[in-house]
Amino acid sequence: MIFGSTGSVGSSTLEVVRAFPELYDVVGLAAKANVELLASQVREFGPRAAVLLEERDAERLRVLIEGTDTEILCGQEGYQRLPGLVGAELVVSAMVGAAGLMPTMAALRAGCNVALANKESLVMAGDLVMKEALARGLDILPVDSEHSAIFQCLKGNSTKDVRSVILTASGGPFWERDARS
């Protein structure tokens, strides 16, 4: 299942699924507002359910995917219901910014391991997110560039051996900013 399926991480995740269809089954997709791309993804992957933020977009999606078996949900309630509804083993959480926290928590509460591209969830509520995962015996796997690189560097090492971690702001909003600003 993918939260943020129409964004860059979500689209990249679906490329992996295309490359290894015998290994992966997409059971749920969620996007904010890119109705046309989500409709294309629904037709290609046939998830059990899909979610869009606004009701008008969900209605448009229903028209575009008419004849499929995919259930369409909408709004914050839809994002919260999706993980439990589709029974995913792994949820890719790739929604941008604060919007990703609630779906990440919903995935954990539904018993899903989370491949986390939305680092803002940890910045805002890391203690809550990690406690929820630990309490349920679930994994949170970092999949976006910076935090995945740190995870890989630290793997197999004791945190006692690390004095500091330096993030270089290699992308995102800092990409074209002058280092002095």
Summarize the structure.
Helix content is 45%, strand content 13%. It is an alpha/beta fold.
Q: How does this structure look, described?
A:
- This protein has 7 helices and 7 strands, in the order βαβαβαβαβαβαβα.
- A 7-stranded parallel beta sheet has the order 4-3-2-1-5-6-7, sandwiched between helices.
- It is globular, with a radius of gyration of 17 Å.
- It has helices at 8-19, 35-45, 55-64, 75-86, 101-109, 120-136, 145-154, and strands at 2-3, 28-30, 49-52, 71-74, 90-93, 113-116, 140-142.
- The protein is 45% helix and 13% strand.
- The model has no long low-confidence stretch (mean pLDDT 90).
- It is α/β, with parallel strands linked by helices and 181 residues long.
- The protein starts with a strand and ends in a 27-residue tail after the last helix.
- The longest helix is centred in the C-terminal third of the chain and has 17 residues, at 120-136.
List keywords for this structure.
single chain; 181 residues; alpha/beta; 7 helices; 13% strand; globular
Topology:
Elements: E1 2-3, H1 8-19, E2 28-30, H2 35-45, E3 49-52, H3 55-64, E4 71-74, H4 75-86, E5 90-93, H5 101-109, E6 113-116, H6 120-136, E7 140-142, H7 145-154
Helix pairs in contact: 2-3, 4-5, 5-6
